[in-house]
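Two folds, back to back.
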Amino acid sequence: HVRDLQEYWSLRLHSNDELIQAGRDLGRLTASYEDKVQENAVLHDEISRLEDLLRLPAFAEFRQEHARVVQRDFSGWWQQMVIRKGRNFGLMVGAPVIFAGGVVGRVKEVHAYTSVVELISDPSVRLAGVVEGDQRPVSYQGGNNPTFGPAQGAIEFVPLDIYASKTAPKTLYTYGLGVFPPGLVIGQITRVEPGADGLFKTGEVRLDPRLASLTEVTVLVPLNPE
């Protein structure tokens, strides 16, 4: 009753012209919001269409958190980077980190306002991948890369009927086993050769050169951490 009375007297204190103008403003604002809702629906449909067309993965199980790169060590250029978001934005250890070219790495440490990202080029990083045009999983591992040199990784357990070279490379994608969703680009396979056991091949993976100059990344924060 008090709220109703307050609203009644607040309206009585304004002239009819002011109330009419306020109603018009409210109508324009409502129409603008309706347009935005329709535009949002159209954009969602367009994103779904492009994802299907380009075979891009959808991140329905993740919340995307964009972050700026604030530090990289000369001695560990290809091992890790520091980003300017941490527990204050709900980041958690193990969350995948990506950019326009594919996989960057995963969150290694989370602090109050920053986080340490372990890069995909780090030799301690291992994940399951899949070769372009094939569904059998292979094993990827970061390599020993010189500072500022081209970043590379290695693959193992590649089926014998898969071929790739510098002139005819093949794209390596995430398999979807572990923290990374499937379909993310890892790099380009530039060489494969028979392994020591003769049962599988091993090879080299050329990583995206843009990894050396990243200023912005996106952290995929799981909506259901369990």
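---
second:
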Amino acid sequence: MSTDRTAVIGGTGFIGSALVERLRSLGEPLRIISRRAAGPAGGLVEYAAASVGDRDTICAALSGCRRVYCLSTGGDGTWEGFQRDFIAGARNVGEACLEHGVERLVYCSSIAALYFGGRGKITAETPPDSKPLSRSLYARAKILAEQELMALHCGRALPVVIVRPGVVLGRGGMLNHSGLGLWMSDLDCVGWGMGRSPLPLVLADDVADALVRAMQTPGLEGKPLNLAGDVRLSAREFVEEMRRRARRCFRFHPRPLWWLQAGEIAKWLVKAAARKPGNTWPSWRDLQSRSLRRQMDCTWEKQVLGWQPEASRERFVSLAIDSNLAKRSAWDLRRAEDPCGRPR
């Protein structure tokens, strides 16, 4: 493998693909690392197969790389999987970066590591949730993964920058995003609450731009960066935009958090009666955080990075929704009527 490459772990994923496209436009020599190496080798881009859960393979894959982006995912829905792919994975990547003397590791975490219940704004100074055991497996794993990296930063001077994107949308992404609510079908979204709070939405291309800037901006080691764009639609508003633009009967169903919690407790009781293993009590704290009702203030991030996410609502919605819709012909009858069947 050639030297002086920038490694992108998870470079074939949603955000990873946007980042790779951005780095290629800058002429950056890349090594894209994924569980299954895929793509044409040679030139400025090469591929390597490795899993962050396997210390030896990820260490070998990072050999010769001066800069590392980690956007790996995984977990397979079990705590053992999250421990392997998130917590041990973060530690393995961090230790491999120390072994190879990389200039900087930019680790892509998630706003799931933060607590969005309660009051007050969330800023770069807001620490991860102090009660990880009261959160979902995914959120807990992200919190503990960040702790692993910060321990390596404080104890062994790992040059790491932790980046937490918000609800990421854009070309190639999911319209039925779980940040909007619980999707009971392709068209029906049950809100994490009443759906009126502005959400920390951000485009994948804007996240990619911020990741590049996080690698280039000096003095950021050990500091977290939260990424939310300037267009803050509520879940109700976004689902309505989906309905209007897709000409399909997308519906948002607001639900009080207590109603959702009552439903989860009912499920727990049924499983308890059947003595199903792994039946954990539903977390009220995690449900409160899913509502995303606290507002994220990214003023500092925009200033320190010189980052300017998309500010036009029309363009944002077009990139978030229209880019994922199939083009309709002029003869499509849905052009002439409301998506829920009402003539226009």
